[in-house]
Amino acid sequence: MSQLPKYMEIYTDIRDKINNNEYEINEKLPDGDTLADYYQCSKLTVKKALDILVKEGMVVRRRGSGTYVKGVSTNGGAIALGPSEGLSNIVGKENISSKIILFSIEKPSLEIAKKLEIDDEYIYRIIRTRHINNKPYSLEHTYMPLSIITGLEPKHLEGSIYNYIREELKLKTHSTHVWIRGDKANSEDTSLLKIPDNSFMMEIEKLAQLEDGRIFEYSITRHLHESFVFETVFVHN
């Protein structure tokens, strides 16, 4: 088996440390000399690894200051949410609370089965509301194949499902396809989020894949527009 290039080993290690919160949101990474010494390589090799993390939006370089783990946006207190990061990893689990509306194991509809690329197998169907600092933030409808996300229990929904997937199941998430649209609040939104009729909502439809290509999540999340910012990074080559 061919060995990964050194810069890819470094990239993978730092990425995993970010996902496991060994490097926390807004934390400054060690400087190039320190990382080069730690990984026993050149500063150029470290730079190649960090370039990938910058391209993926996991870290940001601040001129004259250093490289930092991406975190909360300062856009008027709104949350900058990237497509592949769990909410707990964006704002910190101590600021989030969840209310489970539904946790069910069932056969999917034809539409959901097609989205998840599965046939006649069971899924988790999850509905929960998320609150940040005790204020309504979002309403989530999530569908996950039972055969991939094994052992999921209601207790895991109180925190980050993504942390459960990465830390306990040891699965490597890879990519996320998102669709973003605006909409008026429906009766479910107003009832569960306690918002006025006809409030404006932002909706994210999401398909998420593992490193091996399997789809492990299809979800639709409805956000209050005033606390929603979608943030991504475009790198010009």
Give an overview in words.
This protein is α+β, with helices and mostly antiparallel strands and 237 residues long. The protein folds into 2 domains: 6-69, Winged helix-like DNA-binding domain superfamily/Winged helix DNA-binding domain (Arc Repressor Mutant, subunit A), CATH 1.10.10.10; 83-230, Chorismate lyase (3-Layer(aba) Sandwich), CATH 3.40.1410. The chain has 8 helices and 10 strands. The protein has a 6-stranded antiparallel β-sheet with strand order 4-5-6-9-8-7. Strands 1-2 form a two-stranded antiparallel ribbon. Helix 1 packs across helix 3 and helix 2 (32-39) packs across helix 3 (43-55). It is globular. Mean pLDDT is 84; it is low at 72-80. GO terms for molecular function: DNA binding; DNA-binding transcription factor activity.
Structure, briefly:
It comes from Niallia circulans. The protein is an alpha+beta fold and 237 residues long.
Shape descriptor reads globular
Output the CATH topology of the largest domain.
Chorismate lyase
Main sheet, how many strands, which sense, barrel? Answer: 6 strands, antiparallel
Count of helical regions? 8
Number of domains: 2
Largest sheet: spatial strand order = 4-5-6-9-8-7
Low-pLDDT regions: 72-80
- Helical fraction equals 25-40%
